[in-house]
Design brief:
The structure is a single chain. Helix content is 42%, strand content 15%. It has 13 helices and twelve strands. The chain has an eight-stranded parallel β-barrel, surrounded by seven helices. A two-stranded parallel ribbon has the order 6-8. β9, α12 and β10 (358-364) form a beta-alpha-beta unit.
């Protein structure tokens, strides 16, 4: 019997929702993703981002809704391609815009967490070779120095790079597209090794840059945790089970663990979790089981992934506080969103009860938004009309916001 059936959130616990600039702002014309969306290079992009949610202009409305619903925190990203549209050319208007967002969050009682890089680069940066080009870490640091007025005051948490492991995976994906190479039938491609190394260097440089400009800002990065598990099967001997676990670990290490290990000693580490990956004895990912419930992204409905991710991350980066920076589900059935999130939160509460140091939870996403090629996967707590941009909170938004007001987790 659980001695604490309704655990209370600790003092200062972050309770929010996340967004990303390119996915909600619209009109990010100087970015590499805008170029890719209109290039015809891949048929995986079903539609361009276009106006997205028009949040570049409607951010006040978004924050008003989150505050009224009961959230105390809001994680959003600032767009490098807007701040530095050409090499060394910085837009003071864009910097002032994002500073107004920080101040607007404070005015509404929302603590802002600012992400400095969420998948998109300025097109010029990508055209010079992206992260693997010489001096990329220096250019990233130069951008951060220019953007310092955004986060130097009124911001307690900065995320340097969102999901660097997925950035490295996308680099491998682009190489396969341009070279005619094959992608694995299931799971993720092996991340590009040079991009992995470059991103670790860039994070270290960014961490030091933020701390030199704003020593009080708690700084880290967020990783898409690969909950790789051996495929269930008949009863195994101890040796067979050890081999199965080793195969899963071999799959997981380059795709997430190396990035988690790189965060040792940071102020915090972001855990992003959605589902699991089943791995066969050959170390290859397997398709989602035919009888499993799937989300709109085709992923397995598996809210238990969050607990596994938190425990695994705590073991790999001991002593580093954890923040759940993304967790959610793409579904058109909001009752399943509530069911998924409730189960994920129960897993988080159990991990915390077992001593895992979790400092916050941010749901993905605040809004139904552009999911890197399509608007079809709806992750949002708030629906957005694609024509009028009218925002309509879903029942899940009220339910999750109420937890923020009560500070009591469901169990």
């Amino acid at each position: 019997m659980n001695p604490n059936p309704n655990p209370t959130l600790p003092d200062g616990f972050l309770w929010g929702a996340s967004t990303a600039a390119h996915q909600i702002e619209g009109g990010n014309t100087n970015s590499d993703w805008w170029y890719l969306e209109h290039s015809g290079l891949t048929d995986r992009i079903k539609e361009p981002s276009g106006d997205a949610c028009d949040s570049y202009h409607r951010w006040r409305e978004d924050m008003d809704l989150l505050a009224r619903l009961g959230f105390t925190d809001y994680r959003f990203s600032i767009e490098w391609a807007r701040i530095e549209p050409a090499p060394g050319e910085f837009s003071q208007a864009a910097i002032a815009h994002y500073r107004r967002m920080v101040e607007g969050a404070q005015e509404r009682g929302l603590r802002p967490m600012v992400t400095l890089h969420h998948f998109t680069n300025p097109l010029w940066f990508e055209q010079r070779g992206g992260w693997t080009a010489a001096g990329s870490d220096e250019l990233f640091a130069r951008y951060i120095e220019a953007a310092a007025p955004v986060f130097a005051s009124g911001v307690d948490h900065v995320c340097t790079v969102n999901e660097p492991n997925m950035v490295a995976v996308m680099a491998a994906f682009r190489t396969a597209l341009t070279s005619g190479g094959d992608l694995p039938p299931a799971g993720l491609p092996l991340p590009d090794a040079a991009t992995t190394d470059a991103l670790v260097r860039a994070h270290r440089r960014a961490f030091d840059t933020v701390k030199s400009l704003a020593p009080h800002v708690s700084t880290g990065w967020s990783v898409a945790n690969q909950v790789a598990q051996p495929v269930p099967g008949p009863e195994r001997t101890a040796a067979e089970q050890a081999a199965a676990e080793s195969a899963a670990a071999e799959y997981r290490h380059p795709r997430s663990d190396v990035f988690l290990e790189a965060a040792r000693g940071d102020d915090w580490l972001g855990v992003q979790s959605y589902t699991r990956t089943l791995v066969g004895p050959d170390g290859c990912a397997l398709p989602v089981p035919a009888d499993a419930e799937r989300t709109l992204t085709g992923w397995e409905f598996y809210p238990e992934a969050l607990s596994h991710a938190l425990r695994r991350t705590a073991a790999l980066a001991p002593g580093t506080p954890l923040i759940v920076t993304e967790n959610g589900i793409a579904t058109a059935d909001d009752t399943r969103r509530i069911a998924y999130t409730g189960a994920a939160l129960r897993g988080m509460a159990e991990a915390m009860a077992d001593g895992v140091d979790v400092r916050g939870y941010f749901h993905w996403s605040a809004l139904d938004n552009y999911e890197w090629g399509s608007y079809s996967p709806t992750f949002g707590l708030i629906a957005v009309d694609r024509t009028t941009f009218v925002r309509t909170p879903k029942p899940s938004a009220a339910w999750l916001g109420a937890i923020g007001r009560s500070r009591t987790l469901p169990y």
